[in-house]
Amino acid sequence: MPTENRLPSTEPRCPSPNTGSSPSPECPAPPPDWRPGVFDHHRLDAYVVAREALVRGDALAQHLPRGYAKLADQLRRALLSAHLGVAEAASRTGADRAARFRCARGEASEAAAALEAALLLRLAPAAEVKALLALLARLCAMLTRLAALRPR
């Protein structure tokens, strides 16, 4: 007797809200103020700035000379961590939220240091690096405020 290969059911576990069925314990109704596709981080200007820094920084890292792959990788990872850290912090509360914003600020500072190294070593166009450094300075200022840190 041959075994039958069956794919798992593709039917949704919870009925669509448009079907008119009432919510069940397995499928509770979403909160009244919930809107699909909108996350906490989408409301933060810091997220928009971090996203812009990530895109610009990645473009710059792609053009670093071949022997500086580690610097390019470090720049990309720091920018990505700052971007993701802002998003993660936005969904937290209290001290946990402030700690996550502080971590994101540290990553943005690390990305700035990597850019300064590229500038000192003349590995990238100064105008591009300086524009990205200004963007990261703005991000750090925003994250300082969000983390309730006092500027030094």
Protein model, in words:
There is one protein chain. The chain is mainly α and 152 residues long. The chain has a domain at 41-146: de novo design (two linked rop proteins). Helix content is 58%, strand content 0%. It contains four helices and no strands. Helix 1 packs antiparallel against helix 4 and helix 3 runs antiparallel to helix 4 (126-146). The longest helix is centred in the last third of the chain and has 27 residues, at 94-120. The model is unreliable at 1-12 (pLDDT under 50).
Labels describing this entry:
152 residues; mainly alpha; de novo design (two linked rop proteins); 4 helices; 58% helix; 0% strand; elongated
Tally of separate helices: 4
Number of strands: 0
* Poorly predicted segments: 1-12
Q: Which structural class fits the helix and strand makeup?
A: mainly alpha
CATH domain class name of the domain at 41-146: Mainly Alpha
- Tell me the distance between the termini: 76 Å
Largest sheet, if any? none
Relevant CATH superfamily of the domain at 41-146: 23S rRNA-intervening sequence
CATH topology of the domain at 41-146: de novo design (two linked rop proteins)
Beta-strand content: under 5%
Query: What level of helicity do the residues show?
Result: 55-70%
